[in-house]
Amino acid sequence: MKKNLMNKIVPLSVILATTAITILACSSDEGDVTTASNNDDEVALTELHQAYTAFDTEATTIYIDGSNVVIETTGLPNHETVYWGEGNSLYREEPDVAVTPSIMSSNNNATTITVDGTPNLTGSTVMTQLNTIGIAVSGASIFNDQEGNGALDQAAASLDWTGAHIGPGVYHYHLEPKAFTNDDDNLVGVLLDGVFLYGRKCDATGTYPTDLDASGGHTTTTQFTQGDEEYHYHIINELYSNTGSYIAFAGPYQGY
What we know:
The protein is 0% helix and 23% strand. It has no helices and 15 strands. Strands 10-11-7-6-12-13-15-14 form an eight-stranded mixed sheet, with no helix packed on it. Strands 1-2-5-4-3 form a five-stranded mixed sheet, with no helix packed on it.
């Protein structure tokens, strides 16, 4: 069944005390909560997918809630970037980046998403929206190929070495996050439909997949499926516009 994508901006400390949900765009100035699933009538999960072991445990808390998986994150990436700001141990000087006014802080990046533990691949595809479309293994958000009301290439100059920026709002990746996947088969993260996103290469073949659908997905084994085939996405191996890199995920989702 198709589900609505809804987002709410709140501090992480009050996530469990509020139920109001407000649709927000890329220009949010605080962390967000994204709910993409409501499967109370489905069978409860008994264990997390093995791929969740790749997520940074200092940045994320991941747990089962019935048939869903909840991912709570500080939103603070575990790698260097100019957006940490001078004086931070993870600050990286990037003189060619047109830095946005925002700098990383602990109180405006907290993000929580709830996804299907077993993605429904039988329904219609759903287009991505602005704001968080997934959580990366680093703990930061993944966004789509848009920036505000326009194409990403208009904001390409503000993207750091790993294809991310603060727009303003949460720190987020638009392009291949080279901090943890760079022309390889590494896990990138999980998207709102519960489908995992991998790098440009396929673990099953060691090469760029040639059978991807319109979303960049296909069904093969991965390094986390113990020989079983599973539908998953890849970053599509096509350079995007003037960025010199590759869009992390444009959509549509296939797992609703």
